[in-house]
Specification:
The protein is an alpha/beta fold. It has 17 helices and 25 strands.
């Protein structure tokens, strides 16, 4: 389990609030405080006493009563004094002190400039890589002595300076033996990001030297990822606006497995319809290899002959050969496992697919789907777009918090089972980082409108999953002369096409028609029970039904690809107080 509080915007919002308010100033506005050495004292507002035992420490920003034991920070005090919850306390403080916490984001520390000129030996190193001194000067490359992680000491390093709007934002330090590091607490952006502003054709490479190599060959709108082929694409989150004008994005990452994975994820986020691959000459792994072995002309040849992503039309064997070989050697691709006992043996989830979730109203379709999303997030860091018509976002957040902590959001019966403060901060951080709630009052709630917003979320947030809950709330605009069945078929085709193009998994929750009772119990519905069309079965990849009686039963009713699951069922006890599932 990843602890993300230090990376979460939600965590920083609350820290910013507490750091911006004097605890002494606030508490003295509601009770009388008296100076007592380095602290302040008062009669405790939480129990009756004649001798002051309530103490406030300004330097530590905490209070404590030595009589009743109550203690905490300024937010805890407001919660206790006003008998309100954490979110309400934060809102009250932000309004009282005019602190716009909803706009506060993590601050970055720009690095100190390193201005030492390159030594002759460094210039010679670049010359051997085909990079001229003119290019080094153009990119403002310098050097310094810096403590490096591999060397565990200070060593000479090359400084690749990251500028945005001509201001220094970050520095990558490079020493011998591939010893790299970026400036601490500095913003992560693409290298040479200013070069693509307003450009229609741009190139993305995997390293700064590849970026210099393209420039050496006369290709100028070119940027590099800052951290190699890792899965942290925070730099895209920070720079996505720079691609607004781009209609052709050529991705020339390294020709190895990590580089290809990075290439595919960048294309998924940026939109495969405007992305192109490259083909390297034999024996070349990246653009700098091409420059060294085939000169500038070779670099131009690679970049000027990009390969479009196959989206529509005819797939040739050239397009399919690598995948076919991979299936032959490694088997068909497995889906992502939820690791939920029982369910994990029945179904896995992959990008490019639709899962239909149905069940009798009130049997917990959305609740169980929250369980699935939380496990895919915990295990694989999936990001989500949520379009929910029946769960208001703030309420939905509290239910997801229960899934991440295994505790109840409210006291209900057993107060020990309530989410504590650490659990609150942790789960808020997880949801803040991985979940995005579509405002149904601000978007066109048709299939086209939801998919347009989802496309933006793929680019800006990297969502891997999309939830539409439930289907019957979507606005239907059936053209004249078209039947409902034809309209639903067309909508599901659009959703499936979007899932394939963006490599996302789309969950659709749909209510069944009126279900018959037999011997006092409802029949178990299936995908054909969904109102409107048999296409809800025909055009979906996977089908799940949630049925609750004394136990909760999850019926997996359809699996398109046998290697990703099988038809069957599993059962769970459901704790109505903590809203947790326990496999039988």
């Amino acid at each position: 389990m990843r602890i993300v509080q230090s990376k979460s915007r939600g965590f920083y919002l609350m820290q910013h609030l507490k750091e911006s308010i004097s605890i002494v100033e606030y508490i003295s506005s509601v009770i009388s405080l008296k100076k007592d050495g380095s602290n302040y004292k008062a009669l405790c507002p939480f129990h009756n006493e004649k001798t002051p035992s309530f103490t406030v420490n300004e330097s530590k920003a905490i209070y404590k009563c030595f009589g009743c034991g109550k203690s905490g920070d300024v937010i805890d005090f407001v919660m206790e004094y006003d008998n309100i919850n954490y979110i309400e306390a934060c809102k009250k403080l932000s309004e009282k002190y005019h602190i716009a916490i909803e706009q506060h984001t993590k601050s970055y520390d720009p690095p100190a400039p390193r201005l030492e000129k390159l030594k002759p030996i460094t210039i010679q190193y670049f010359e051997r890589r085909g990079i001229s001194n003119d290019t080094l000067l153009r990119f403002g490359i310098t050097e310094t002595v810096e403590w490096m992680p591999k060397a565990q000491t200070e060593v000479p390093t090359i400084c690749f300076n990251y500028f945005r709007n001509e201001e220094l934002v970050n520095i990558k330090f490079r020493a011998k033996n591939k010893d790299f590091k970026l400036s601490k607490n500095s913003e992560l952006i693409f290298y040479n990001i200013d070069s693509i502003q307003g450009e229609e054709t741009v190139v993305i490479v995997e390293g700064e030297i590849d970026c210099l190599s393209c420039h050496e060959a006369g290709i100028y709108p070119v940027i590099s990822v800052p951290n190699g082929a890792g899965n942290n694409l925070q730099y895209l989150d920070n720079c996505w606006r720079s691609f607004d004008k781009a209609t052709k994005i050529i991705i020339a990452t390294d020709n190895d497995e990590p580089g290809i994975k990075l290439r595919d994820e960048l294309a998924r986020r940026l939109g495969v319809e405007r992305c192109f691959k490259v083909s390297y000459p034999e024996g070349c792994k990246d653009i700098n290899d091409v420059l060294v072995k085939h000169t500038k002309r070779g670099v131009l040849s690679v970049i000027e002959q990009p390969i479009p992503w196959p989206i529509e039309g005819v797939h040739t064997m050239d397009d399919l050969y690598d995948d076919v070989c991979n299936y032959y050697l490694n088997g068909y691709p497995k889906g992502y496992e939820t690791k939920i006992p029982g369910l994990n043996d029945l179904i896995t989830f992959s990008g490019g697919q639709i899962t239909m979730v149905t069940g009798i109203p009130g049997h917990g379709k959305s609740e169980f789907l929250d369980y699935i999303t939380s496990q895919l997030t915990l295990n694989y860091q999936w990001h989500w777009g949520i379009c929910s018509f029946e769960n208001p976002p703030a309420f939905h957040v509290t239910k997801l918090m229960e899934k991440f902590t295994g505790k109840s959001f409210q006291f209900r019966i057993d107060s020990t089972q309530r989410i504590d403060k650490d659990g609150f901060d942790y789960s808020v951080g997880m949801i803040d980082m991985y979940y995005n709630f579509i405002n149904i009052n601000k978007v066109d709630v048709t299939v086209d409108g939801i998919l347009q917003k989802a496309k933006e979320l793929v680019l800006r947030k990297g969502i891997k999953g999309l939830i539409i809950d439930p289907w019957n709330y979507l606005e239907t605009k059936i053209p004249a002369g078209q039947t409902e069945t034809q309209y639903i078929s067309e909508c599901l085709t659009k959703i499936k096409t979007f899932a394939i193009q963006t490599d996302t998994h789309i969950f659709i929750v749909a209510h069944p028609t009126k279900i018959k009772k037999e011997s006092g119990k409802f029949e178990v519905p299936n995908l054909y029970s969904i109102s409107g069309s048999a296409h809800f079965f025909n055009k979906t990849d996977n089908g799940i039904c949630i049925y609750r009686d004394e136990l909760v039963t999850c019926y997996v009713q359809k699996i398109r690809f046998s290697w990703q699951g099988k038809i069957g069922s599993c059962q769970f006890n459901y704790d109505t107080f903590t809203r947790q599932y326990k496999a039988i």
